[in-house]
């Protein structure tokens, strides 16, 4: 391949700020062709797909995108199979379930590991650290769906004041319990199944579809827990109703394809709901939950403890998480005695701002308990509110500092409850 | 609300670069509470929903997020309707179609206008300009789905060498034609309908599900054109088969709910497929296609002309777009004689790099013809390939310039064909 040369004709500003760019003129060859990172089939690890329908992943784990394909550099292979396919072979209509399994990235994000620089919980220092984390976003997502469901229960039933999470990396099992009022243990006359079976085992079901009531829950789309069920080897729902004195239990296996009859027994005196699931790691090219995914799960449990600090005590593997306020939570990210300003704007918004040590804007933000990794309108809104008056005040002092320069030195934390939020996708990385 | 003060104890570096931050110590009040931007119901404009199922939008057009709600500042309104709802009223199971209509943001992005700084085509200067554009992302998306389908046909059938787009803002109608081999005019024996009806009028259908063949098309998920159909008042498919000497035509109306029987007649001597649709603007709180959305549509037609410059001539409203190479396309973004380097890495990758005038990284990138607004792994990959050797070369010269500083001064254009790409969501803004 030809090499890439920066032309010497570049005329660049020579202020100190731009000094380095003059080096671009040294006609340094920068070969951007790619020999080591190629599109190669991935060895399937772990248990074979129970459904036998997941197609080979696109890229190797940990690898970037191959620009060249060793096998077949050029031209692009056109789809010209030797035997002409029939229209029935070429065109297919999928069920919703098949679509989830064949196109998981539309629903839970990539099932292949990606490496991203993220904030995670460090178990030694008990602080948040920003570091490279390699994890399958889809696995993170199914954990999150179940966790956010538990957190949402505090918005639906303010008496929900305890969430208990157990993560057993050895057994590969996760359980998440909340003590709010549970799911009605009643038969749904239209669908002919009990409500817990309907909302945990049937796609496109839920109680969050009506936008007539203003909702501040994170779940909205009716996929949520079902996605966790589909990508799990085993998925168990238990719910106890104080009012009815009943406890309901139901077990799904083999990626939601097998559903046992529920058992309904006389129950205890408290309300609670518990979901226990064993993610099907083979679907994520993993054999075992590793330190990175555990650090990420742990971070999310701390997130919920921070977002719901005013009303819910959160336990992880038996220990109460020692966070009493959103400010406590923010301090997990900051060196001791870092100056920062905190403001509880109202019952729906909490904001904390300090200086970014990175020289670029940093943000940790939540909308209805969902970690909006990439920020979104809630973060933009807070930044705009802070940056504009600062810029104006500086202008009055004859200092021509641009808004983006001020922005670059801020680290903002936002904990927002937004009514009927819209996200960029089911993966909800950005609030729109 | 309490005001937000920056504490005076901040100890900041005093290099010129950080000078402005000292002003933060002036204890300037920055009240981030929000009085003017509140969550208010939006007046429905235009024709009422034909389906009567779209719920009220979340935020006002053009408005940010309200931090406070004038009507009900606090506490958060809990959902406690007076009459207790039955489980049948509370829990619902939707059809796929109902889910698309009730949760459009999962499929096409927001149906409410957003304001974003984007590159669009300026009809006066005939160049791309970056400016604030107010548009409903969902409307952009349905146009794009149909356009990318036409572009994909060049990957499936290399003889596709012409795409013709007509946009009639007055009539509110769009048509997109390509001259590649069309959709088989055959009855699908399993589904019992003609193939064009199956793939344009039934959800979760398509020919792009198999990942066994390496595909470099943009469409993958089986929603595509159906979403355009659902969000259109009228949707017409015409396809002509040279081989069979037949032309097929079918018309859907009322958001895909009404489907007329197809007509099949003796056809002409060339292959072509044409989709003509009238977006249901009432679903996007619009009465008329305005300059912003037209500028964005036009940009996308130019994008396709740039991405497929080597093989396809693209016409817009009767005029051939004068782009003969990806380099020609990149020049639409640059002032005359801007120094830049162009490299055709191989048949699948083209890259163009120049200096960013903005002081921050700029990128215009495509994966399989899809405009990845937010970039993704393909852009990161190119940047990493360029930045790393530059950083190392500078280090050898004892210049300690950080990678992110170099990055901040680059403007990269990437035109990539990626095999079986994974995107962050159906809206495909980021390549994962």
Automatic annotation (TrEMBL), chains A, B:
Name of the top EC class for this enzyme: isomerase
InterPro entries: DNA_Topoisomerase_II (IPR050634), HATPase_C_sf (IPR036890), HATPase_dom (IPR003594), Ribosomal_Su5_D2-typ_SF (IPR020568), Ribsml_uS5_D2-typ_fold_subgr (IPR014721), Topo_IIA (IPR001241), Topo_IIA_bsu_dom2 (IPR013506)
Keyword Secreted among UniProt keywords: no
Pfam families assigned: DNA_gyraseB (PF00204), HATPase_c (PF02518)
Region (Disordered), start-end ranges: 64-84
Catalytic activity: ATP-dependent breakage, passage and rejoining of double-stranded DNA
Gene3D superfamilies, A to Z: 3.30.230.10, Histidine kinase-like ATPase, C-terminal domain
GO molecular function: ATP binding; DNA binding; DNA topoisomerase type II (double strand cut, ATP-hydrolyzing) activity
Catalytic activity, EC: 5.6.2.2
One GO-annotated biological process of the protein: sister chromatid segregation
Cofactor: Mg(2+)
Origin: domain of life: Eukaryota
Keywords of the record: ATP-binding, DNA-binding, Isomerase, Nucleotide-binding, Topoisomerase
GO cellular component: nucleus
Domain Histidine kinase/HSP90-like ATPase: 136-234
Residue ranges annotated for the DNA topoisomerase type IIA subunit B domain, each copy included: 341-432
Family to which this protein belongs: Belongs to the type II topoisomerase family.
Subunit structure and binding partners: Homodimer.
PANTHER family for the chain: DNA TOPOISOMERASE 2, DNA TOPOISOMERASE/GYRASE
Protein task: Control of topological states of DNA by transient breakage and subsequent rejoining of DNA strands. Topoisomerase II makes double-strand breaks.
Name the UniProt record assigns to this protein: DNA topoisomerase 2
Naturally occurring in which organism (per UniProt): Sexangularia sp. CB-2014
């Amino acid at each position: 391949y030809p090499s890439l040369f920066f032309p010497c004709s570049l005329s660049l500003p020579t202020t100190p700020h731009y000094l380095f760019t003059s080096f671009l003129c040294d006609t340094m060859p920068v070969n951007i062709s790619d020999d080591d990172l190629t599109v190669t089939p991935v060895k399937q690890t772990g248990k074979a797909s129970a459904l036998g329908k997941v197609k080979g992943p696109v890229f190797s784990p940990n690898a970037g995108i191959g620009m060249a394909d060793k096998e077949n550099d050029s031209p692009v292979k056109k789809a010209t199979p030797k035997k002409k396919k029939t229209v029935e072979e070429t065109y297919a209509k999928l069920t919703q379930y098949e679509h989830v399994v064949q196109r998981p990235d539309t629903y839970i994000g990539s099932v292949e590991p990606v490496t991203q620089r993220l904030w995670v919980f460090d178990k030694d220092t008990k602080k948040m650290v920003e570091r490279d984390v390699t994890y399958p976003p889809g696995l993170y997502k199914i954990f999150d769906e179940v966790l956010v469901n538990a957190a949402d229960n505090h918005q639906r039933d303010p008496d929900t004041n305890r969430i208990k999470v157990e993560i057993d990396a050895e057994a590969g099992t996760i359980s998440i319990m909340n003590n709010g009022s549970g799911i009605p243990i009643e038969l749904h006359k239209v669908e002919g199944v009990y409500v817990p079976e309907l909302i945990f085992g049937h796609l496109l079901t839920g109680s969050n579809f009506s936008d007539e009531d203003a909702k501040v829950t994170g779940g909205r789309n009716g996929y949520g827990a079902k996605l966790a069920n589909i990508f799990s080897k085993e998925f168990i729902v238990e719910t106890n109703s104080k009012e009815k004195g009943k406890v309901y239990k139901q077990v799904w296996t083999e990626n939601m394809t097998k559903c046992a009859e529920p058992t309904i027994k006389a129950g205890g005196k408290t309300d609670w709901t518990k979901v226990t699931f064993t993610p099907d790691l083979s679907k994520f090219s993993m054999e075992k939950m590793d330190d990175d995914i555990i650090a990420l799960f742990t971070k999310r449990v701390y997130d919920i403890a921070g977002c719901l600090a005013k009303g819910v005590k959160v336990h992880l593997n038996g220990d109460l998480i020692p966070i009493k306020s959103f400010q406590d939570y923010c301090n997990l990210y900051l060196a001791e005695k870092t100056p920062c300003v905190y403001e509880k704007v109202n019952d729906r918004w909490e904001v904390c701002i300090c200086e970014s040590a990175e020289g670029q804007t940093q943000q940790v933000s939540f909308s209805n308990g969902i970690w909006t990794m990439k920020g979104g309108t809630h973060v933009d809104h807070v930044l705009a509110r802070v940056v504009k008056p600062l810029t104006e005040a500086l202008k009055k002092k004859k200092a021509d500092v641009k808004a983006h320069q001020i922005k670059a030195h801020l680290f903002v934390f936002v904990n927002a409850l937004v009514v009927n939020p819209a996200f960029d996708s089911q993966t909800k990385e950005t609030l729109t």
